[in-house]
Amino acid sequence: MKIDDFSHWVRARQCDVERALERWVPEDSPAGLGCVMRYAVLDGGMRLRPLLVMAASEAVCGDPAAALRAAVAV
Fold it and tell me: Model pTM?
């Protein structure tokens, strides 16, 4: 795999994880908890642990949807 291919793979997986986090972390939780959770979770970073989960899943031909759920959990 060339570095350009790897960079593209990383960007694509990061986008998948970000979209899933935005979708699965509720904004409308009681007592403003949703805003606090979203701030803590969506504050950026490289998200290396989710990338490792996605890479491991792909290496063993795992289910991408299950891998995404696990990646978001870590």
Answer: 0.77
In whole angstroms, what is the distance from residue 50 CA to residue 68 CA?
A: 8
Interval 18-50: pLDDT, tens: 899 888 877 777 777 877 777 777 776 677 899
Query: What is the residue whose two structure tokens read 């960079």?
Result: 7
DSSP string, 3-67: HHHHHHHHHHHHHHHHHHHHHHS-S--GGGHHHHHHHHHSS----HHHHHHHHHHHHTT--HHHH
- Using CA atoms, how far apart are residues 70 and 17, in angstroms rounded to an integer? 10
Structure tokens at 40: 């803590």
Q: Tokens 């998200």 correspond to what residue? A: 47
